[in-house]
Give the backbone structure.
Amino acid sequence: MTSSPGDEPVFVRTGGHWHYNHRNRVGRVLIVVTGLVVAWGLYAYADDIRWSEAELRAAVHEAERAVESEALPAYQFTTGYDGHLRDAVHASGEGPEHGARVEAREEGGGADRYEVTTTDTDTAYCVSVTPAVRDLPRDVHGRPSGDEVRPSLEVAEAPC
């Protein structure tokens, strides 16, 4: 007596491993559904590890608001504003938590300029920060003091 496809088990064991049985209708459906779920998961993962133009734009403007809203001691900016900007871009909740680059470019008009880019986008943002590091309050030894500084930022969608 031969068995019908409906009599086939959903899972079969081959060589000690269990897998879906392609001879069973439910097994075939599970094969297709598993493939679709894995494809969707890979797509969602790839989308979460890459910056989009909109995410970068939103992150830079959110970082602008975050840096301007918090007064910090001048000595925290001794090496420049780039670290604070990079941290604020990543903490914005937009895009991945890595991959944004903030590079010091030049001084101009009393401001320090930083370029914000990613390897995933073609857009660059030029962020001008005042006061410039050279203009920060100093202590009696000429080092940046503990006086609080609230930087002012200006963002332009263009390379510096």
Observations:
- Residues 5-48 form one domain.
